[in-house]
């Protein structure tokens, strides 16, 4: 069985995600230690009211403490724990490979900490170039799920539009 879905953030303000085709919606909740998506609760409630599956995600930053980021995320999404998939959005693709590989360690720390706090294994959300270029073996061995983003070349898309994976998975 496969599920079709899409992600939303603050730039989809005004969209009723419950009315858009798809089985699930992944809603940006937080970023760093001080940003909450102003559309988060509205989009999350629309998703659940429509009977769709919900995912909530945190956009990791490498400029602030990982445990503080995870605690911030857990505080914001607390009403949805047990109702939503918890997700870490990893897009640290700028800088050197060494810097980005250090980011994998930070992502693993976040995933482990959220698991320790909730008993729920989060899913890692990243693009295929990031998945291919970095060593994710520690995340794989820890049995965290993986969602590969399928970016749409900056064309406007409203909802889920199936297409083949552009490339192949390394991990």
C-alpha geometry = globular
- Total beta-strand segments: 7
**Integer count of domains:** 1
- The CATH architecture would be Alpha-Beta Barrel
Number of helices: 5
SSE ordering = EEEHEHEHEHHE
Strand fraction band?
A: 15-25%
Q: What profile does the largest beta sheet have?
A: 7 strands, mixed
What helical percentage do the residues reach? 25-40%
Name given to the CATH homologous superfamily: Glycosidases
Low-pLDDT runs: none
Instruction: Give the overall pLDDT as a whole number.
Output: 87
Decide which structural class fits the backbone: alpha/beta
* CATH fold-level label: TIM Barrel
What is the rounded distance between the termini? 22 Å
Query: Nearest-angstrom radius of gyration?
Result: 15 Å
CATH C-level name: Alpha Beta
Task: Name its key features.
171 residues, alpha/beta, TIM Barrel, 32% helix, globular
SSE layout and pairing:
Blueprint: E1 5-8, E2 24-31, E3 35-36, H1 40-49, E4 53-59, H2 66-77, E5 84-89, H3 97-118, E6 123-127, H4 128-133, H5 137-141, E7 145-149
Parallel strand pairs: 1-2, 2-4, 4-5, 5-6, 6-7
Antiparallel strand pairs: 2-3
Helix pairs in contact: 2-3
């Amino acid at each position: 069985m496969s599920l079709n879905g899409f992600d939303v953030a603050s730039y989809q303000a005004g969209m009723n995600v419950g009315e858009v085709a798809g089985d699930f919606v992944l809603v940006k909740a937080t970023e760093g230690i001080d940003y909450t998506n102003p559309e988060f609760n509205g989009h999350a409630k629309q998703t659940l009211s429509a009977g769709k599956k919900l995912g909530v995600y945190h956009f990791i930053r490498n400029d602030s403490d990982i445990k503080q980021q995870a605690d911030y995320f857990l505080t914001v999404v607390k009403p949805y724990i047990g109702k939503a998939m918890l997700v870490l959005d990893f897009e640290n693709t700028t800088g050197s490979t060494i810097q980005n590989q250090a980011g994998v360690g930070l992502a693993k720390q976040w995933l482990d900490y959220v698991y320790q706090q909730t008993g729920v294994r989060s899913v890692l959300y990243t693009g295929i170039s990031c998945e291919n270029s970095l060593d994710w073996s520690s995340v794989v061995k820890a049995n965290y799920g993986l969602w590969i983003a399928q970016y749409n070349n900056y064309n406007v898309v409203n909802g889920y539009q199936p297409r083949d994976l552009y490339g192949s998975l390394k991990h």
